[in-house]
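Go through this one:
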Amino acid sequence: MSTTTRPNILLIVSDDHGYADRSCLGIHPDVRTPGLDRLAAEGVWCREAYVTAPICSPSRAALITGAYPARWGVRWFGDSEIAGPEYPTVAEHLANAGYRTGYFGKVHYGSEGPDDRGAPPHHGFEESYYGLAGRQMGRLHYLHHSAAAVDEYGEAAQHMGVEPLYHNVTVSELEGFTTDEFARRTSEFITTPDDRPFFAMLAFNAVHNFCWQLPEAELEARGLPAFEDWHPEATPYVDWYDGAISPHLENGRAYYLAQLELMDRQIDGLLALLDERGLAENTLVIYLTDNGGSTCNYGDNAPLRGTKYSLFEGGIRVPFIVRWPGHVPADIERDGLVSSMDIAATLLKQAGVEVPSDGPGALDGHDLLEYLQGTDGPAHETLHWDCGFQWAVRSDDWKLMWVDGDDPAVKATEQVEHTNLGAGYRLTHIDHDLGEAVNLADARPDIVAALDAAHRAWQRETGLAASPDPAAAR
């Protein structure tokens, strides 16, 4: 194990975890997350933490680089990719600084293939075990990853995400529960004898739909019935999918909570492992999810409005917890704007790596340590989001959203995901209206104009094409 003062790092990323779905919050008595509760009790929960997009691909690309995905032209699914080498990943920076680096879990930066930069061996990870969700409609099956499964599922294989996984650059089949296997591989990496500090990134596919894909023993223990994956001969995929999400999926919330509990069990086990090996005090642990909880998958984002796909708070504000005993206080909640982009800057700073501040590859994130310690203010005064057909800016307590209600993506999201993104401008004072119930756009045109101008300036600075100006059309 490392004897250096540079910290080991364990970065845990879940998928679509609802903001309200932690048992320590006391919102839902049926939620059981003792691992995440322990993490929060031993660290800092950042209550106003955001990701850079309400969907996974651009959000994950920003997290791994520490920069807005707009800087390489990414706004939504169709143009989403990991940044090129001009934006080195946090893994590349740490590997160059002498860290051993490992990636375990779901990969989804865009249309990645095993030889593309989006695959972990090609952006800084020396050890990796992963599935390429970009080739499988954004998902990994929880139980089946083999050539036999691909043959068995046929036309449904891509939709259900049953392609084999990869160990480094080699195909690796798994007929077993991904949550347990990803955590097991992470544990092995952490405990591998090595004098270098480690950076382990664990990217669960939990709790992404389809959560009924549980081990048979877990279904039996919870009294849950099995639910069938899509079979093309039975019904068209879109019709089947509509019955497999809220509000039509019977036992949907129970399936979701089971996956959450099993993921949490593995997180708790990893924390125990760090304790047992005497690594806890020299290991910086961060937990967050990739975007807001998916209400169509029975996640709950209370008290926030909205869901994954939307720029309401429920689509972009996420659970974000940091533990580093002796360096970060315990059982503390902090307000103030924090971004997933800050993770890269924080890790590099604590590892003694010079953080790029200007030019190609510069980070948009900031080191969070003093904020976490309570000796400095929030990392950001202003944050921006831009999906092309919808954008948002938050500055202090004001938040302005704009949605092109006529864009096909808006209509498709409402039809397929049962999510209404709204239309036009929406101005909210978040401190007074966390649920974004009241639109103040008409009452405060001065704030609308100022934030609209600020966002258009940000679009120009990042190189994005400006959004249509509704005022110019009138």
DSSP finds 15 helices and 18 strands in the chain.
